Amino acid sequence: MERTLWYPEFLGLLGLRGVANLTLAIGGDNRAVRTGALTFIASSNYLVAARSAVGRDGSDQMAVVNFLCSLLEKAPTEDTKVREAASVALAGHACLSYFISGITKIASPVWRSGEAMELVLRTRTYGDRTWYDFVRRHPGSARALAWSVMAAETLFPLVLIAPRRVAQTMLFGGALFHVANARVMGLNRFLWSYTATYPAIARVSRSLSPPSGSPVKDLTGALVRQLGRSGVRRRAAALTAAAAVAVGGAVWANLRNKKAKKRSVEPGRTVVVSGRRIHVQDRLRDVGPTVVFENGLGLPSSVWQRIIDGLPKDTNYLAYDRPGTGWSAPGSAGGAQDYAGTLRSLLEAAGARPPYVLVGHSVGGVLIQTYARRHPEEVLGLVLLDAGHHGQFERSSHQRGQLAWARQEALVEVLQVCLSVSEPATPGRNFSSLSPEQGKQVARCLDDPRHWWSTYREIRHWTRSWAGDSARHRPSDGTRIAVVTAGESVRADAVHDELQRELAELAEPGRRWRRTVSGADHHDVLMHAEHSKHAVEAILWSLEPARGPIDDRRGEHREHG
Q1: Do 519 and 488 touch, CB atoms closer than 8 A?
Q2: How far apart are CA 225 and CA 89, in angstroms?
Q3: What dihedral angle (degrees, nearest 10) is formed by the CA atoms of 31, 34, 40, 45?
Q4: I need a labelling partner for 488 at 20 to 30 A (CA). Which of 7, 115, 259, 397 fits?
Q5: Pairing of strands 269-273, 276-283
Q6: Which three-class secondary structure string do you get for 284-325?
Q7: Nearest Cα to 379, choosing from 506, 486, 558?
Q8: pTM for the model
Q9: What distance lies between CA 1 and its chain's CA centroid?
Q10: How far is it, in rounded angstroms, from Cα 216 to Cα 371?
Q11: Three-class SS of residue 107?
Q12: CA angle, corner 515, sides to 514 and 517, nearest 5?
């Protein structure tokens, strides 16, 4: 069996699949022959999938469902209920597939704005130059087209209960939709996989469609008559209550288990500020300076451990989780004024001593500027690690799109974490460069729906308060500013490099330090073993006025200041 998956033997398997497909096409009504061909095609799909990850997209999965349901329909039995069940299963699967595709698009702000159509059409793989130029010239057409697709996919299951002529029109429209996708985007397999389900959909639709006359009136009347029966009402109420209790109990048990796992790996300590528990990881003495770490969006304080380990052992530091995130108690960081007040109270309660070098990653870079604006006398320097800029969403379409995806991801994660019973995941991020223990800490935090809900609320504060407040920041004469930029962020968005340069230029010449780290992505600058060394160097440079010059090896890199 193993050699079957090797080259060139694997070509023989593909050849046999071709023969089986040809047999289906010319095999006539011989049920035994068609059943044998379908059995081979359906079973060999798993061998093909075992050899390569290519070919597991939606069209390929639907093709497998088609083959399996067709095989069931050809089952050697006289019981017509088996064949009817095969048609119902295939029709239901196709309608559910359309519906899920539609509501997923509706949940995406990129689709709702119509930007998704432009993004798809501009790609090399699925794009089309003619249509791309058209939607660029007529932005309203992209939005209209996007909403047409979302509406058609979401409402497609109504084909099962629509009057016959309406159902036929919907299926004809669906076929045209797939023909257009095949022509414009090259999605040929979707045309064959999905339209192959239409005969089953039509068959089920004929059995469920309302009688002639007013379809709305007939359907409404049938529903009212059914609901009017007391037995039906009682059964529906009982089933609904049982389902609610079962789902609620499962979610409660799941979240309780996640909370216990998260608590079992909690590092550091808790500091109470204005009645709220805020989690910190720190190493403090009675004298300054102190390095204060401000997390990026959706990240807990454990992500700083790589940089902390690179600092001299006598360096004071404090890393913490904003209210509602990480291990801190539920809550919100609030607007710029509330955030700055909470951080100042936290530093005092924890025993941190000024002057401070504030280190911020991503949105953390925006936040530390709001603090420095209010307490310039306490700030020795700012270290901005691929940091946010107050004007990034107005000046960069790429970053506007990223913000929309971040907002959507936060809400989706709230639901997924509540309903999931699997081990904690780290969606969209790679924490493999952290130690196993630190990676587990981060994963447990991301497996908490409260963390993601707070992240969603922070996105609102970012755009409504934090960004505008940081725009008014004017560093004092002695403040040093070090900017570390991820090379991959610049490669993806040229505007990002311009914004990073402006952040560095907030400081006076001679008090600014900037470096772009080639090959590093947005998170590598603080977690990658090699790339995070630049952040350590920037911190040590910022500490120089209070600790004295760093060694010659690091000092020779100060030409950017």
Answers
A1: yes
A2: 27
A3: -120
A4: 115
A5: antiparallel
A6: CCCCCCEEEEECCCCCCHHHHHHHHHHCCCCCEEEEECCCCC
A7: 506
A8: 0.64
A9: 39
A10: 61
A11: coil
A12: 160
Region of residue 93 (left: phi > 0; alpha: psi -120 to 50; beta: else): alpha
Query: Which of 51, 60, 64 is closest to 1 using CA atoms?
Result: 51
For residue 355, the SS3 value is: coil
Q: Which two tokens stand for residue 498?
A: 């311009």
Question: Phi and psi of 409, rounded to 5°?
Answer: -60, -40
Please give the C-alpha separations between residue 67 and each of 21, 86, 117, 203, in angstroms, as whole numbers: 11, 11, 32, 17
Q: CA distances (Å), 340 to each of 78, 327, 369, in order?
A: 76, 20, 10
User: What's the token pair of residue 88?
Assistant: 């119902």
- The model's pLDDT over 194-217, given as tens digits with 9 standing for 90+, comes to 998 999 999 888 887 665 545 555
pLDDT digit string, tens, across residues 439-469: 888 888 888 889 999 999 999 999 999 999 9
In whole angstroms, give the CA distance from residue 390 to residue 381.
19
What is the number of H-type helices and E-type strands within the chain?
A: 26, 8
Strands 316-320 and 379-385: unpaired
Q: How far apart are CA 66 and CA 24, in angstroms?
A: 13
Using CA of residue 140, residue 410, residue 123, residue 174, what is the dihedral sign?
Answer: negative
Average the pLDDT over 341-365 and give the result: 95
pLDDT at 500 over 90: yes
Beta bridge partners of 94: none
pLDDT, tens digit, for every residue of 360-383? 999 999 999 999 999 999 999 999
